[in-house]
């Protein structure tokens, strides 16, 4: 078969006898039927494109240079199997068991995995662009990306694993993955702001503004995933506003601590009224602080509520 055959042609060739022979070849057994090979990128691959494999065990095998593109694999065990240099792009795997499997240098672009167990599995230097995991047991730390993997790819993988974690009810993992996704998105913005040579001045300034916005949101509250950062920022804001009011002598005759107390009452919108600023500038500063406090409190409540609900 050539590399230009249609998907329908590739799938139609797989008779029961040829499929059985292919499985024997994968298991290292002799077969009377010759399995086709394919030359791709200077390597000879076992051509299993479009094959359909169901309800069998391929545990503990060494699968090297196997092309499973467009394959449909259901209810197959790959426990402890090493897949090296294999092409799994656009393949569909459902109800498969990949526990402690190893994927090394595999092309897994646009592959689909459903209801599969990847516990203890690892992905080393694989291409995972646009791959999808749905209701799968898989951890992000099991994936070691290629050194040349762009941040766009990393963000997409995090996004998909986040959705998978949410489908499994693992909202803490989903929160961590959401933060990683936004982190890689920030790296994309940085590349665009400072790395793209063809941007106009206006577009570059806009890109820098988007990047600075992402940096600020990360520093402020971790994109909503780290409320403790926001709480720390609120304490710092109270101290800073209090110090400014002290320098402006907003409340005459009061020391620094009392100005910080006044700042806290204003920022948290408590408004006891026991202290009041004197002068135009201190009063304007108090208005700004009160508005900032309302914004910060709303963000903190939203972030903390999300964390509590998803525990």
DSSP helix fraction = 40-55%
β-strand amount: 15-25%
CATH topology of the largest domain, by name, is Pectate Lyase C-like
Query: Which value, in Å, is the CA radius of gyration?
Result: 29 Å
Overall tally of domains? 3
CATH superfamily of the largest domain: E3 ubiquitin-protein ligase SopA
- Distance linking N and C termini: 52 Å
Give me the secondary-structure category. alpha/beta
CATH class of the largest domain: Mainly Beta
Lateral strand order in the biggest sheet: 3-6-8-10-12
Low-pLDDT runs: none
Q: Could you report the average pLDDT, rounded to the nearest whole number?
A: 90
Largest sheet: 5 strands, parallel
* Number of DSSP-assigned strands: 13
Q: Please state the overall shape, judged from the principal axes of the Cα atoms.
A: elongated
Per CATH, the architecture of the largest domain is 3 Solenoid
Number of helices: 8
Keywords, separated by commas or semicolons:
Pectate Lyase C-like, elongated, alpha/beta, 5-stranded parallel beta sheet, 13 strands, 16% strand, 311 residues, 3 domains
Question: What do these coordinates show?
Answer:
The chain has 311 residues and is of the alpha/beta class. The protein folds into three domains: 143 residues, E3 ubiquitin-protein ligase SopA (Pectate Lyase C-like); 59 residues; 83 residues, Helix Hairpins, CATH 1.10.287.70. Strands 3-6-8-10-12 form a five-stranded parallel beta sheet. It has a five-stranded parallel beta sheet with strand order 4-7-9-11-13, with no helix packed on it. Strand 1 and strand 2 form a beta hairpin. It is elongated and about 100 Å long. The model has no long low-confidence stretch (mean pLDDT 90).
